Amino acid sequence: MKPYAKKFYKSSAWLKCRASYILLRHGLCERCEGVGKIVHHTVYLTPYNIHDPNIALNHELLELLCQDCHNKEHHGSSDVVSDGLMFDSNGDLVRSE
């Protein structure tokens, strides 16, 4: 997670927006209909727009994705990148279990 985004993703406004969006989408990934886990911003958040509720908290600019679809969006694949490694929900490279 980008340092400028940590406070936003812990904010009451984001947590309420995220929860309401998951309910709106019935908890299903909008691409594959698997279990949705990550509320993805279709307009990437930057230090310049993260405090604009018309971008950061707008349901029309969100998408509920499962882990695999989110990895494909950000990294082009849901596959392990090297033996024993994978991307986590924050897009960080971690050891696979």
Name a few traits of the molecule.
two-stranded antiparallel sheet; 4 helices; 97 residues; 31% helix; globular; alpha+beta
Question: What does this protein structure show overall?
Answer:
This protein has 97 residues and is α+β, with helices and mostly antiparallel strands. Helix content is 31%, strand content 14%. The protein has helices spanning 6-9, 12-24, 53-56, 67-75, and strands spanning 38-41, 62-65, 85-87, 93-95. A hairpin with a 5-residue loop joins strand 3 (85-87) and strand 4. The longest helix has 13 residues, at 12-24. It is globular. The model has no long low-confidence stretch (mean pLDDT 87).
Outline the fold blueprint.
Elements (H helix, E strand, L loop, with lengths): L5 H4 L2 H13 L13 E4 L11 H4 L5 E4 L1 H9 L9 E3 L5 E3 L2
Antiparallel strand pairs: 1-2, 3-4
Please provide a brief summary of the model:
31% of the residues lie in helices and 14% in strands.
The largest sheet has its strands arranged as 1-2
End-to-end distance, in Å?
A: 21 Å
**Number of DSSP helices?**
4
- Mean pLDDT rating: 87
Largest sheet: 2 strands, antiparallel
Order of H and E elements: HHEHEHEE
Tell me the fraction of residues in β-strands, as a range.
5-15%
Q: From the alpha-carbon coordinates, what is the Rg to the nearest angstrom?
A: 14 Å
In percent, how helical is the residue content? 25-40%
Shape: globular
Taking pLDDT < 50 over at least 5 consecutive residues as the criterion, the unreliable ranges are none
Number of strands: 4
Computed structural class? alpha+beta
